[in-house]
Design goal:
With 268 residues, the protein is α/β, with parallel strands linked by helices. The protein has a single domain, classed as 3-Layer(aba) Sandwich (Rossmann fold), CATH 3.40.50. Helix content is 43%, strand content 14%. A 7-stranded parallel β-sheet has the order 3-2-1-4-5-6-7, with helices on both faces. Strand 4, helix 3 and strand 5 form a beta-alpha-beta unit. Helix 1 crosses helix 7, helix 2 packs parallel to helix 3 and helix 3 runs parallel beside helix 4. The longest helix has 29 residues. The site of nicotinamide-adenine-dinucleotide (NAD) has 27 residues, from helix 1.
């Protein structure tokens, strides 16, 4: 049998308390490969059932607070003895609105959660990784951070800044043996996007923008995270791995434009 890639590696995951979310599914993949996992989230929610395992730790943590991020890193090191991989995955969306109608408080909370969390956690985790001479940091960005995204300016700007921060930390700490990367998911079926299923017309339009014609599964993001965290990615840092069924490879325009182009082809 092949050796587990992450035997006894310690992985701190933020935003992993929803069983069908990207964080918890990625935690299961790490556990299956021998890792010890520590989850930091606002509530225990679905993970309460497997918290008895000696390989799983948890603390309540609001990642928009620098103090709570520091406490989460310390709790992880106390329970598991070290920290090899940080996966900053906690994130929040904002309601759709143009800038004049976006709430300033929402803007600030989204920025502090999605971006601030990565900064605060990295600030505390990097010195541990420097002492170990090795480490891997991975953040969940989004295809919304690769270009503008209509009506969700706080979210899109926060994810764009996550990508930039990932690249900068990667440069600053490449010689410390710390690799820093991001995944950029497109539409993935998780609790965050469950509401779209209640609006079939919106969901159909979203799916028609995805070249592979379907939403992604959380494990498809998790497998990309494990790749970036593994020795297979030993020369990869400052990278953004898109997990989006081809969405960000396409700049053809709206589904209507694509339909017109298809009709033109049929006429030739
Ligand atoms: N689902 C998608 O289509 C999609 C696409 C691109 C990016 N993402 C990103 O993936 C990540 C995971 O989201 P998901 O889709 O699995 O949904 P999810 O709702 O299951 O996961 C988000 C998690 O973050 C936690 N969280 C939110 N605010 C927090 C805070 N302040 N402190 C600590 N934890 C907090 C939530 O409690 C939840 O467990 C997010 O960063 C999200 O922006 C999701």
């Amino acid at each position: 049998m092949a050796a587990h890639r992450f035997q006894d590696h310690v992985v701190l995951i933020t935003g992993g308390a929803n069983a069908s979310g990207i964080g918890a599914v990625t935690a299961s993949l790490f556990l299956a490969e021998g890792a010890k996992v520590f989850i930091a989230d606002l509530e225990e929610r679905d993970i309460a059932s497997y918290l008895g395992s000696k390989n799983v730790g948890f603390c309540k943590c609001d990642v928009s607070s620098p103090e709570e991020c520091e406490a989460a890193v310390q709790a992880c090191v106390e329970i598991h003895g070290r920290i090899d991989i940080l996966f900053h995955n906690a994130g929040m969306l904002c309601p759709p609105a143009h800038v004049p109608n976006q709430d300033v408080g929402v803007f600030q909370k989204v920025l502090l959660t999605n971006l601030g969390g990565l900064f605060y956690l990295s600030k505390v985790v990097i010195p541990y990784m420097q002492k170990q001479g090795k480490g891997s940091i991975i953040a969940t960005a989004s295809t919304s951070g690769l270009s503008g995204a209509m009506s969700i300016s706080p979210y899109a700007a926060s994810k764009a800044a996550v990508i930039n921060l990932v690249q900068t930390i990667a440069l600053d700490h490449a010689k410390d043996g710390i690799r820093v990367n991001a995944v950029a998911p497109g539409l993935i079926d998780t609790p965050m996007t469950a509401g779209f299923s209640q609006m079939p017309a919106l969901r159909d339009d979203m799916l028609s923008n995805i070249p592979m014609g379907r939403a992604g599964k959380p494990e498809e993001v998790g497998k990309a995270v494990l790749f970036l965290a593994s020795e297979d990615a030993s020369f990869i840092t400052g990278h953004v791995l898109r997990v989006d069924g081809g969405t960000s490879a396409d700049c053809s325009g709206s589904p209507d434009v694509v339909k017109h182009l298809a009709a033109m082809q049929r006429q030739r």
